[in-house]
Amino acid sequence: MYDSGYVSDPDKVDIFEETVEALTALKDAGYLLIIVTNQSGIARGYFTNEDLEKVNSRMVGLFKENGVVFDGIYVCPHKDEDRCTCRKPLPGLIFKAAKEHDIDVTMSFLVGNSKSDIYAGFAAGCRLNFLLGGEKGSLSRENTVSVDNMADAAEIILTLDGKHPKDNP
Ligand SMILES: [Zn+2]
Fold first, then answer.
1. Residue 4 within any structural domain of the chain
2. Interatomic CA distance for residues 92 and 109, integer angstroms
3. Is 123 among the domain residues?
């Protein structure tokens, strides 16, 4: 859901206010929030599992301070050459998360900022896949929507499910 690229310094982690608000709205509406991330930086030796733990816990901590608690974080530490089944665009980690949290993938939404995120969501059979920012119009798959940011994605999700505050004053 949030791609920090190859960030390995916990002090460089930052979160957006609008993302906090959007995730809070989703959580309030009863959705589980789960992060599925590729971190080939580990396999490439750019940083260690321990660095990643620090970065992840810093990010999760920042969200928590702002009232957003994630229900799970799933990390693929491999690189392409490892031929694992968990690295996006493969849907392995999504299925793992769904199984462990008893989630119906076909009722789930995926929000990502790269095509590989979207393809993973598509392969998993997610209900709708949101591509954040950029690459607009570059995806022609069904069940895929381009949006500017997390707030727009949350807006659409809540409206689709009739859980938008405007629908439930
Ligand atoms: Zn993997």
1. no
2. 16
3. yes
Tell me the CA–centroid distance for residue 78 and ligand 1, in Å.
4
23 Cβ neighbours under 8 A, 6+ residues apart? 33, 63, 68, 150, 154
Q: What range does the domain containing 83 cover?
A: 10-160
pTM: 0.85
Q: Tell me how many domains the chain contains.
A: 1
Answer whether residue 167 is part of any domain.
Answer: no
Compute the distance from residue 4 Cα to the ligand 1 centre, in Å: 17
CA of 116 from ligand 1 middle (Å) equals 13
Residue 61 CA to ligand 1 center (angstroms) comes to 25
Note the pLDDT tens digit of each residue in 55-113: 888 888 999 999 999 999 999 989 888 999 999 999 999 999 999 999 999 999 999 98
